[in-house]
Design brief:
Blueprint: H1 9-14, E1 40-44, E2 47-53, E3 60-67, E4 72-75, H2 82-95, E5 101-105, H3 111-114, H4 117-124, E6 128-130, H5 132-142, H6 151-159, H7 164-173, H8 177-181, E7 190-191, E8 197-200, E9 203-210, E10 217-222, E11 227-231, H9 253-264, E12 272-275, E13 281-282, H10 284-305, H11 316-319, H12 326-345, E14 349-354, E15 357-362, H13 369-376
The protein binds zinc ion.
Zinc ion is lined by residues 108, 110, 213-214, 232.
Length: 377
């Protein structure tokens, strides 16, 4: 097992871009009221929207409870904090009506989604449904309990252009945060694969996997009622973090993210989307188009900036509207590298390595149309 697994998962949650002014305004939001933490609101027959608190710049996560008639299906679990566990106690007492939990479905392994999955399994005895890459990645990160930051991770951020002070701050932040935010997961699980059908809440759901934000994220689509449980694959008001990590330092998550967005575009326009953050909404195509356009604007700006060679960190001024600090700085770096790698893999920029630092220089104009052309073939 590599010892350079980078688990700043808390940071990952905190690093979603703050909503840009007006972002997501053109979507249709059918529900005016957002439930209080630990409370539920029935938003379609047998589908209950539940929110749980997050101690980050992102304040809440949506979970969903599905009435199976003879019991419940729980979708996502919330972060492993005593406050969220207290809210769950209330949910079990008041809302689940003494009926059993039939299954727990987790969209992906990030701690706000998987943090209490193991705790819910222990409490209910219900099986855990996840995709293989999400389950195994989470199990791996749970083993990372070292307090000191590995040299390889420091070298990775140095290569991205971290100044000495930022490297020191990163080293001081410590390591192994995933295991603090996630309850121990069971040793076994039920695997969800792309295209699989799951039946729960009186509906048939088809699994649609995606990557770029996490390794093998599961969304679920009910064709009969046109409902998409989107997880973090499609959020209405914020852009999901798409980052390169020291574990896969030459990855192309943005290329994978674009592919995943295209996979959602064939869904009916009046599909009701149940996201993991902010309110349920309609108009999938408007949202996938806006998210793609935001990344394309950044790619254009970066390729213009890199006429003079630039590190990932030197790309911040054209990528982010605000100054990044703390863990946002680390996560912004992952995003900046993701955009650089997208351009590098398509021959738009070249990498110049010198003294343990990588700079990227534009060698061919980036054509915004090329993003769509990759998927027209
Ligand atoms: Zn996530």
């Amino acid at each position: 097992m590599p010892n350079d697994v980078n688990p700043p998962q808390e940071a990952e949650i905190a690093s979603y871009h703050r909503p840009a002014r007006g972002e997501g305004e053109r979507l249709d939001y059918p529900f005016e009221d957002i439930p209080e933490f630990g409370e539920t609101q029935e938003i379609a027959e047998g589908i209950h929207w539940l929110t749980m608190p997050l101690p980050f710049s992102l304040k809440a996560i949506n979970l969903y409870l599905f009435d199976d008639g003879d019991g419940w299906t729980i979708l996502d679990s919330g972060l492993n904090t005593s406050m969220v566990r207290d809210h769950w106690d209330k949910v079990f007492d008041k809302l689940l009506d003494g009926k059993p939990v039939n299954r727990i479905v987790i969209t992906h392994m990030h701690p706000d989604h998987s943090g209490l999955a193991g705790w819910l399994v222990e409490r209910t005895g219900a099986p855990l449904h996840m995709t293989r890459a999400e389950f195994l990645t989470a199990r791996t990160l749970l083993l990372e309990k070292s307090e000191t930051v590995p040299q390889k991770a420091l070298a990775f951020y140095k290569r991205a252009g971290f100044p000495a002070m930022a490297l020191e701050a990163f080293a001081a932040h410590g390591y192994g945060n995933f295991a603090k935010a996630v309850w121990e997961l069971p040793q076994g699980y039920r695997r969800m694969r792309h295209g699989d059908r799951l039946d729960f809440g009186g509906r048939k759901w088809r699994v649609i996997t995606g990557s770029g934000h996490s390794p093998e994220h599961a969304s679920l689509f009910c064709e009969d009622d046109k409902i998409l449980i989107s997880g973090d694959q499609l959020l209405p008001r914020i852009t999901s973090n798409v980052s390169v990590y020291p574990t896969e330092p030459y990855g192309d998550p943005l290329g994978e993210w674009f592919a995943s967005l295209y996979a959602l575009e064939h869904l009916p326009a009046d599909t009701l989307v149940l996201p993991s953050h902010n309110e349920p909404f309609r108009n999938v195509q408007q949202r996938t188009g806006d998210i793609r356009a935001a990344h394309i604007r950044r790619l254009v700006a970066l390729s213009e900036l890199c006429v003079e060679p630039k590190t990932a960190v030197e790309g911040f001024p054209v990528l982010f509207r605000r100054k990044l600090s703390g863990m946002d700085y680390i996560m912004g770096t992952g995003e900046a590298i993701a955009h650089m790698h997208y351009l590098e893999k398509r021959g738009n920029v070249e990498r110049l390595s010198d003294g343990g630092v990588d700079r990227f220089r534009t060698i061919a104009d980036f054509d915004p149309e090329s993003v769509a052309e990759e998927f027209d073939k």
